[in-house]
Amino acid sequence: MNKLLANAARDDAEIQALMSGVLGEVAPVSRRQFFKLAGLTGGGLVLAFYLGDSQVAVAQTTTDFAPNGFVQVRPNGDIVIFSKCPEIGQGIKTAFGLIIAEELDADWQRVQVKQAAVNPAVYGRQGAGGSTSIPANWDQLRQAGAMARSMLVSAAALEWKISEADCRTQNSQVMSKDGRSISYGDLVTKAAALPLPDVKTLKLKDRSEYQLFGKRYTGVDNRQIVTGQPLFGVDTQLPGMVYASYTKCPAFGGKVVKANLEAIKQLTGVIDAFVVEGTGLATEVLSGVAIIASSTWASFSAKKQLQIEWDETRASKDSWVEFMTQAQALAEKSGKQPLRNLGDVDGALKDSAKQVSAFYSYPYAAHATLEPQNCTAWFHDGRMELWSPTQQADSSLTLLAKVTGLPVDRITLHQTRVGGGFGRRLMNDYACEAALIAREFAKRQNAPVKLTWTREDDFTHDFYRVGGFHSLTGGVDNKGKLTAWRDHFITFTADGEKPVSGGNMDAEEFPALLVPNVTITQSLLNSATPAGPWRAPRSNAIAFAVQCFLHELAVSAKRDHKQFLLDLLGEPRWLTPGNYRSLNTERAAAVIKLATEKAGWGKKLKKGHGLGLAFHFSHAGHVAGVAEVRVDKNKKLKVIRVVMAADVGPIINLSGAETQVQGAVIDALSLMFAQQINLEKGRVQETNFDQYPLLRMPNAPLVEAHFIQSQYNPTGLGEPALPPLAPAIGNAIFAATGERVRTLPLTKSGFSWG
Amino acid sequence: MTTLTVNGSTHQINNLDPATPLLWVLRDHLGLVGAKFGCGIGQCGACTVHLNDAPMRSCLLPLSAAADQKITTIEGLASPDGKLHPLQQAWIEHDVPQCGYCQAGQLMSAAALLKQKKKPTDADIEDAMSGNICRCGTYLRIRAAIHSAAGNSSKIAAVVGCWTPSGVNESCDSTTLASEA
């Protein structure tokens, strides 16, 4: 894992930093401690499984065989697999189950996947972000499955008094060359008595040996989801639980001076109301008023009656209109901060046959997870116990310890299913709020406190995808080849020195490594609005500007866009040799060719129809998309069909992979069509879905997902399928109408759904 | 005192403001958390339940209006013997959920549709489902699953596929997961 992190592409660095709770060596854990933490009571051979470390803690069993914190085999043949990372809708619980089951040669019908306890000492990092869950855990999970399999084979070989080499496994059975077979369940007792193999000696499957991967599997929690079982954080129910709301200043950073607490306490169902001073950090707890009530509704109703006097002297004054004005004034010049300077852009532009300049912009955006932020916290007996829908299970612990002042070992965190992540829940402010509110309320009453944000709280206290601006100039030579690239990137800063989270641009951003003459500069606008990663951070916005502008250049040079991109990619190579998370031009070209082939690139279209292509590389994933749109004279837009081609290595669960691509396309279309967070006097103007519309079923296009299952190790798919969509649509609109859209959302240019 | 009949069981509700939305009565007082809170203003549909077999946004429906009516929630969609509703079965077969948070509401809207129209067209489905937001974008599969539960198998077009360098179109012969445009 450490090796992988060292090699991680720079566009993942930020997510890695955010998720850096536990990345190094893990501490040994005692046998008893592991039992307790992993929740495996009642025995079982259990050992803590350390990555790259054969140290183990073993406990004997009389019932189950559980050779590590990931797998348990029961005498009846049932297999329980523990999924360490948060399930946020990316399908990781199913995929992790499959990875372990594949190496174990388990009968998938008998596998049950459970959410693992939050215990970084056993599991290492337990986060979901940056499309890293599969690549970062690929080896660890395969080893976990292989270890269990190896011990079951040893047990069978002993039973039959034959060599292990004469045994093979399939479908939860060990089979001998001479035709005998025995089920895993019948080997449990014998396997549990065996010494643990050294992780280094485990033989992992060759790709040709895979039995489970690449087929379609339904999600392991689907039956519970469709029957309405309590799975999500907000579904937490505990005896004696009370219900909290929390109200912060609508202008970011404002502080409570006073509030009508006494009047609030008189309201029906209200148990208590108090001011929480907070820690002053948006990522932890901002100043606000907590209302504790006998139901969520009583708390929400009382919230509406709150009268709070705010001190806004140090609160945000941000205004989007003002930001636009500042950016436009800067656009003509170069940025003060150089990001990349290669060759001679001015000279190349002078020599170019075609030169194009354009100004692109995109707005702030909210995550709007459908499950609003919430957390249940219970402070009792000097301990804090929390139930939190989080993307950061392990590092939540350290954050909560910091905020509460409690030692980490006095905090227990249960990770629930998460009703949408998209990067929002990489921040755990809501959990910190719940912890401080619960601790304060514990002075009066010993009760679990469920904090639920209203949708309005959620929209107005997000960590937004920041807006941004690109002033671009490019030059194409007389052979139609891109020779010069200049980008003045205008983004936002909180500290005056570096861009905010999710608002930075890599000096190697496509196509910087493919053009001989490149100048990229950066300007920073001061902002006090909290910012954070949004699905495919940075790429989700930059791809629109960069990949549309490349199309503009291709058009100006009268080149076919596909061929223009293929020429730009050039010879097959890794752009950063030795880094398998960098762009590989062969993989890039292959997805472009596949997407265009499947979409019928070049076919004759009806009037008002257009095909648009875009490629983008992010989070180690190579993805291209072709969109077919229809636009009428009233600018009514219909996205008819989107064809996506991705190379993220071998596919674990084909259904999961397809659904991630379909979801990413719809998410990206939803974002680009009508979503904008407007800031005025430091306040977010959009407070609910009526003002921040999400795409609905009638406007969802047909989406095809095609995968090139290349020879490389698998990488994540939650994010990289999103960035190519917006430029593909922008380019298709141009193809259909001749109108170039350079500002998002599309509604700003008068488009509506057709 | 108010009497609520939910999934065939009768509940006496005491000391609650009659204006309390049904959603919160279900979730906080009856422990039925399948219906979800998403927006509180009837925009997202995550809280959809049936009131006398018609889809209702329970976040806006006051307790007083739900009294003495037949209420069905996602917990009551399957048969009492545990046999899943054909839509629930189709949702599993088509692997519809991503995060899953909106799906109870989606299923309740779809179930109300199928009660009215046994063989809905695409337009019927769009009409019935347009009040339900899915933040993860599972719309194609929802549509396919509704057609599947309705027995409209011809409506489920084979539009997804995979491709390998060898050109083998493997794993593409089973279920199809998106519907026609």
DSSP strand count of chain B: 5
Major beta sheet, strand line-up of chain B: 2-1-5-3-4
Give the neighbour order of strands across the main sheet of chain A: 12-13-10-20-17-18-19
CATH superfamily of the largest domain in chain A: Aldehyde oxidase/xanthine dehydrogenase, molybdopterin binding domain
Strand content range of chain A: 15-25%
The percent of residues in helical segments of chain B reads: 25-40%
Helix and strand arrangement:
The complex is a heterodimer of chains A (754) and B (181).
Chain A: H1 2-7, H2 13-18, H3 31-38, E1 46-47, E2 58-59, E3 65-68, E4 71-73, E5 79-83, H4 92-104, E6 111-115, H5 120-123, H6 133-160, E7 167-170, E8 173-176, E9 181-183, H7 184-192, H8 222-226, E10 242-248, E11 255-259, H9 261-265, E12 270-276, E13 288-293, H10 296-304, E14 308-311, H11 320-331, E15 337-342, H12 345-351, E16 354-362, E17 374-380, E18 383-388, H13 393-404, E19 411-415, H14 429-442, E20 449-452, H15 455-460, E21 468-476, E22 482-493, E23 517-526, H16 539-556, H17 561-569, H18 585-599, E24 609-618, E25 621-631, E26 636-647, H19 654-674, E27 679-680, E28 683-684, E29 702-707, H20 725-737, E30 752-753
Parallel strand pairs in A: 5-6, 10-20, 18-19, 22-23, 26-29, 26-30
Antiparallel strand pairs in A: 1-2, 3-4, 4-5, 7-8, 8-9, 10-13, 11-14, 12-13, 15-23, 16-21, 17-18, 17-20, 21-22, 24-25, 25-26, 27-28
Chain B: E1 2-6, E2 9-13, H1 22-29, E3 48-51, E4 54-57, H2 63-66, E5 70-72, H3 86-93, H4 103-116, H5 122-129, H6 139-149
Parallel strand pairs in B: 1-5
Antiparallel strand pairs in B: 1-2, 3-4, 3-5
Helix pairs in contact in B: 3-6, 4-5
